[in-house]
Amino acid sequence: MPLYNTATAATATGVTSKWLDNLLSHNHIPGVQSESQGVSRRLSLAAVTQIALTKELIQLLNVPVPTAVQVASTMLADPDGKSLGDSPIRMTIDLHEFQADVLQCLARAVELAPTRRRGRPPKR
User: Fold this and answer.
1) What is the mean pLDDT of residues 30-42?
2) CB within 8 A of 11, min separation 6: which ones?
3) CA distance 8 to 80
4) Higher pLDDT, 45 or 90
5) Which burial class, exposed, middle or buried, applies to 7 when counting CB atoms under 10 A from its CB (0-12, 13-18, 19+)?
6) Which of 39, 17, 1, 3 is nearest to 113 (CA)?
7) Mean pLDDT of 89-108
8) pTM of the predicted model, to two decimals?
9) Least packed by Cβ within 10 Å: which of 27, 32, 99, 103?
10) 42 has pLDDT over 70
11) How far is CA 85 from CA 67, 88, 91, 111, in A?
């Protein structure tokens, strides 16, 4: 299973690297590997999918970020893509179509978002 860096995930989901870093710093999203300070985070496909859905919920419904993260997690965990528990109000998502779209965006982003070298540039 491939892992993606934050630059690739940000490009694929259409957010800035700073927005993504803040999201990952303040919310728990399964599939995010974070080792230590100075080491780039690595994200699984499931994590990138949850980030993409979180962004969509924030834009479409104007909900706070923690609420969007929770609703996205619930929707992606349900095989039917439903949310809101026992409430008569339902939100659904076509999981296969959404995941296919995320995969397509990731494929483009891998080419567009090069991995930055860390540290000082070499002396000339």
Assistant:
1) 79
2) 108, 109, 112, 113
3) 28
4) 45
5) middle
6) 17
7) 90
8) 0.84
9) 103
10) yes
11) 14, 9, 10, 39
For residues 27 and 23, what is the distance between their CA atoms, to the nearest angstrom?
Answer: 6
Give the model's confidence band at 113: pLDDT under 50 very low, under 70 low, under 90 confident, else very high: low
At residue 118 the predicted structure's pLDDT band, cuts being 50, 70 and 90, is low
CATH code: domain of residue 40: 1.10.1660
**Structure-token match 């076509």, residue found:** 94
CA atoms 95, 17, 64, 34: torsion sign: positive
Task: Enter the tokens of residue 27.
Answer: 């919310």
Residue 120 falls inside a structural domain: no
Pair 34, 41: CB distance under 8 Å: yes
User: For the chain, how many residues are written?
Assistant: 124
Q: Name the token pair of 87.
A: 């409430």
Q: Residue 97 is part of which domain span?
A: 4-111
Count: domains in the chain = 1
